[in-house]
Amino acid sequence: MKEDRFSLAQQSMAFILAGGRGSRLKEMTDIRAKPAVYFGGKTRIIDFALSNAVNSGIRRIGVATQYKAHSLIRHIQRGWSFFRAERNESLDILPASQQLDEDNWYKGTADAVTQNIDIIRGYGPKYVLILAGDHIYKQDYSFMIEEHVRSGAKVTVGCIAVPREEAKGFGVMHVDESDKILEFVEKPADPPAMPDNPDKALASMGIYVFEAEYLYEVLKKDAANPKSENDFGKDIIPGIVAEGGARAHPFSRSCVMSGLETEPYWRDVGTIDAYWQANIDLTDFKPELDIFATDWPIWTYSELTPPAKFIHNEEGRRGQAVSSMVSGGCIISGSSLYRCLLFTGVKTHSYSQLEGVVALPYAEVGRRAYLKNVVLDRGVKIPPGLIVGEDPKADAKRFRRTENGICLITQSMIDKLEK
Predict the structure, then answer these.
(1) Stretch 318-325: mean pLDDT, rounded?
(2) Which positions are annotated as binding alpha-D-glucose 1-phosphate (predicted)?
């Protein structure tokens, strides 16, 4: 009797790799790991991988942490503590902790799993799903697990179709018409095209499905190889591809499209520009990612806050927001917002104007400030009268300004202005 995908998901464990810094986000990851970066008004990036697992029916999850993990661990403890051991559910936080030797740190993505094999074994999963914890997307992993079991593959790799030019920055799969991976190429100058689409290539999403016992065997073999970098993308997957045991799973087969969504949505918000754009896109009339849809909820830790408040109604001093998202606890006091996304507890004061602003929790904008195309880090206090977005040269001297004109502002940058 064949098992259905729901049963297969219940026999699986998700292992989320959440230890990366995300250095391309610059100062945003000075005090937090990339998976802990805020996104979408009230969530954090890791909430998407965690929610996908829970919504897919996977209730045994491990999260490997490493770089600046305090805020990530605190968030998981506060927002993800509803798992019950008596229902065979668990969520373990797994910092690098000298499991195998005296070297504290995980050497690579594969080593992060290797160091925790005994813990994974303790839960007795039949299948292990390896996930990256730093992407924005909605996916039902049960379809991918089912496909893996039916195919008899040694590993199934989640892939997304991207324009060939963009694929140069990814690990790319060269596949045949049956989805067997013929070659895995890391950041190729000339990415191999998809069999049915010469303009696109299959890029790895950093999602892998293994049968648990086979995974343990492969990892131990890799750990014993002194030449290995102990990494899935560099060592484990290419090795299995060479043996002919790897298959690709296109994201389009298991992506979740709910509400207004019409196309598969997956984003790596690993640069300031990409982060700003993905957040601002949520303010569109028909956003590509519909976070209002309730049939595939993105779970998170929600602070207890009062509703947002808009006050003052005078010419030039009117609390208003157009094409914007404003979270609980915000006070828009006599200021105007256009295409802005404000996280919890943000305050804007009279006569200030904000356009294209992503303001993280508890930021505050002073009177008569003008901000355009800006990311405000958590708790930043913008002084009265500050103008950002009008003079590129001045912005670049004071703040972190990208080539596309997006400014990241942290409190330490503001403090330097006032000295």
Answers:
(1) 98
(2) 106, 171, 186-187, 204
Residues 152 and 13 grouped into a single domain: yes
CATH code of 387's domain:
2.160.10.10
**Dist CA 229 CA 111 (whole Å):** 9
Binding site, residues?
Answer: 106, 171, 186-187, 204
**Residue ranges at the known binding site for alpha-D-glucose 1-phosphate:** 106, 171, 186-187, 204
Spatial separation of the C-alpha atoms in residues 367 and 385, rounded to whole Å: 6
Q: Residue 313: give the domain boundaries.
A: 309-418
Q: Number of folded domains in the chain?
A: 2
> Are 330 and 223 in a shared domain?
no
Q: d(Cα 410, Cα 399) in Å, to the nearest integer?
A: 8
Residue 352's pLDDT is 98
pLDDT in tens, 360-390: 999 999 999 999 999 999 999 999 999 999 9
**86: pLDDT strictly greater than 90:** no
Which amino acid belongs to residue 247? Answer: R
pLDDT, tens digit (0-9, with 9 covering 90-100), for 268-297 = 999 999 999 999 999 999 999 999 888 999
Verify that 192 and 74 share a domain, yes or no: yes
Does the CA dihedral 42-136-25-79 come out positive or negative? positive
User: What distance lies between CA 57 and its chain's CA centroid?
Assistant: 20
Same domain assignment for residues 17 and 115? yes
The string of pLDDT tens digits covering residues 129-154 is 999 999 999 999 999 999 999 999 99
CATH number at residue 136: 3.90.550.10
Do both 240 and 201 map to the same domain? Answer: yes
**167 & 223 share domain:** yes
Report the predicted TM-score, pTM, of the whole model to 2 decimal places.
0.95
